[in-house]
Description:
A five-stranded mixed sheet has the order 5-6-7-2-12, with helices on both faces. Strands 8-14-13-11 form a four-stranded mixed sheet, sandwiched between helices. A three-stranded antiparallel sheet has the order 1-4-3, with no helix packed on it. The protein has helices at 12-22, 42-55, 79-82, 91-99, 135-154, 170-173, 178-186, 217-229, 234-250, 293-309, 315-326, 329-332, 401-421; strands spanning 7-9, 29-36, 61-64, 71-74, 83-87, 111-118, 121-129, 208-215, 256-261, 278-283, 345-353, 365-371, 380-387, 390-398. Helices cover 37% and strands 22% of the residues. By secondary structure, it is of the alpha+beta class.
Amino acid sequence: MSKSLVKYHAEAWDILQHLFKEKRINDRTIHFAATFSGNLDLECLKKTVDLSADAFPLIRCGFHERYGRPYWENKGYTSDDMVELVETENVGAAIWKALQKEADEKNGPQVKIAVIRNGKTDTLCVTINHMICDAAGFKDYLYLLSSIYTGAEKNPEYRPAPLTGKRDLGQIVKTFSWSDRIKIFIGNNDMTKPDTARFDFEGDLNHPFIEMKTVPREKVGLLKEYAKLHGATVNDVLMTAYIRALYQHFGRVVAVPCAVGLRKYLPNRKAGSICNLVTNLKCDIGDDIGASFDCTLEKVKEKMAQQKADIISLKSILLMEAAFRVIPYRVMGKSVDPFFSNPPIAFTNLGVLDKEKLKMGKTKMTNAFMTSSIKYVPYFQIAVSTFDDVMALSANLYGTQADRNIISSFLAAVISELCGAI
């Protein structure tokens, strides 16, 4: 059978990410960049990408809409369609140009890779369509690339095992008993009523940008110690700094949704394949911000622990999964808001980029970051990624320079709160 005839189910989260772009909430791209101390072997990299597509064919696919249920169709793309070499002295501009390239979801491919070369050093830029994975799924794909590259460099006959497991939310549902499933579906979940606070952005559809600030290694170490001392997670501390910075900006406490992965419910926290498995919790600490960072942290810690322990938070996403199974796509696309409302202000911790799993052969990776999709006005989200104990805070927007200035100042305020706590 011709590869162009091979089709795959589009899962509920694939479709939802597609609708987010249609509804002008965010684009469909997650971004990754890593700098190396030397040059990558371009031929080995291209072979790696081809082998990764053999293991996970969705990156070769195009997305097809139809009334009943959309699907992915293999278009037979190769690494020649996905990988490019850019030799330049203006590395910064080249990185940004590579990162802002959106995947063509209808025609494919769903992954784009650029090697930005400046003499003896390379920067690897990878973008992936958010429809086929969340941040954890993207990391799985990056780790797959790294393992294939390293394996192929040692053994030309190396082949990765195909990823043939489930991508749907059913793999989460089946981990719960019937009584827990009933509890989730009949429980009260207020995620469809987001806080109304929003930044006063102008917006510019012709000007996407990624604004980023970093927290250095020594400060991150102190933040970890501070979190441990207070019986909190680093994520709790980040959320506290975010809420306090929002309080400075809006003059009131803002309830902030936080993306949380669902892989914790799976054996070994491992999904069947590369996919989207995420939902939102809402951190609503009430009207009192607290007299100090420590006071706010106690409120955040209590609320987040409560939310994480409450399986009712799964209601919206599991209702959406059930609805997409029985309601035609064209009907569901017009009525998705009751199942999953996107808040104007949000937070996501993309997690730690594992330095050991990101090794590309013998070439040393010196710096890396990941950042989420680019938002449309009025939506705003801070994303955090950590590599080698350096933390990158980013916020992405289709906006004006004035919007970028607002975001830059706000990120600085969040970091000021973090550093003030330690």
